[in-house]
């Protein structure tokens, strides 16, 4: 038998000088912000990046194109569960929207003249896919790399953006160009340019509110200017390459067709 009266319980106080890693994981990880035992080569590893419901995707799309002053898009919509589901399907949808709308715009540009035999341009799909997916992946990667390198020399780490969060932000920021691409079919030059400015400004402001707190140091203004500049260049590139044809092209095709109708050069018999 154990004599409870003779048993002494010693209580010790331990002081922890190291705080265990939070569920968010280490800042040194590129994509996996929730370390687990899942293998990098397994399907379940990537499944976690697509674990998002319809309401979350809808809210992220809406607030990715409608800026809210004083509200950080990452904190309000992305954290703590960034996803790749929305960005992937937004990019795919934008590719096919630009391909279809671009061909419709091309048809509307030349069909009224009756002098140009129009045909569907399948190369638009590959061009649009290359531009969109390169922008949605390479720009966040370059920005994430710069933030990691730049903030190492700074004294504070108040804000951290993972690569996955940047991919998520940039992917959803492209959502505004889906309806804009449809409206670009309207062949009114000033209207097309208004859509460029409006679409790039709205989603660009959301990008700035998301990226700005994570960039520190004297190069912050330059980085933010590059971020918004690339976003505007993407919109301008979409409109000029896929939807806009200068007026002199109409005259060129008209002149060439009229020249052919003259059966030139003449045949003397």
From TrEMBL:
Any one Gene Ontology BP term: vesicle-mediated transport
Top-level taxon: Eukaryota
Keyword entries, A-Z: Membrane, Transmembrane, Transmembrane helix
Keyword Membrane part of the UniProt annotation: yes
GO molecular function per UniProt: small GTPase binding
A GO CC term attached to the entry: Golgi membrane
Membrane topology: Multi-pass membrane protein
Residues of the Yip1 domain: 63-237
Subcellular location: Golgi apparatus membrane; Membrane
UniProt keyword Transcription present: no
UniProt xrefs under InterPro entries: Yip1_dom, Yip5/YIPF1/YIPF2
Transmembrane segments: 87-108, 120-143, 163-186, 193-215, 221-243
Family designation: Belongs to the YIP1 family.
Protein name: Protein YIPF
Organism of this sequence: Menopon gallinae (poultry shaft louse)
């Amino acid at each position: 038998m154990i004599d409870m009266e003779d048993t002494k319980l010693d209580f010790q106080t331990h002081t922890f000088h190291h705080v265990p890693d939070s569920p968010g994981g280490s800042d040194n990880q590129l994509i996996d912000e929730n370390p687990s035992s899942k293998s990098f080569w397994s399907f379940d590893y990537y499944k976690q990046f697509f674990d998002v419901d319809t309401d979350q995707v809808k809210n992220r799309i809406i607030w990715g194109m409608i800026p809210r002053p004083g509200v950080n898009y990452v904190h309000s919509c992305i954290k703590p569960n960034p996803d790749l589901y929305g960005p992937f399907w937004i990019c795919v949808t934008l590719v096919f929207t630009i391909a279809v709308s671009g061909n419709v715009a091309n048809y509307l540009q030349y069909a009224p003249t009756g002098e140009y035999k129009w045909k569907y341009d399948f190369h638009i799909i590959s061009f649009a896919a290359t531009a969109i997916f390169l922008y949605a992946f390479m720009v966040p990667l370059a920005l994430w790399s710069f933030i990691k390198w730049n903030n190492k020399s700074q004294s504070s780490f108040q804000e951290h953006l993972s690569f996955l969060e940047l991919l998520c932000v940039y992917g959803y920021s492209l959502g505004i160009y889906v309806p804009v691409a449809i409206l670009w079919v309207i062949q009114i030059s000033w209207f097309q340019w208004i859509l460029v400015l409006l679409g790039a400004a709205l989603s660009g402001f959301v990008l700035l509110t998301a990226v700005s707190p994570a960039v520190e140091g004297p190069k912050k203004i330059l980085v933010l200017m590059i971020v918004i500049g690339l976003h505007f260049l993407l919109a301008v590139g979409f409109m000029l390459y896929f939807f806009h044809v200068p007026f002199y092209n109409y005259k060129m095709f008209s002149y060439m067709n009229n020249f052919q109708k003259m059966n030139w050069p003449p045949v003397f018999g």
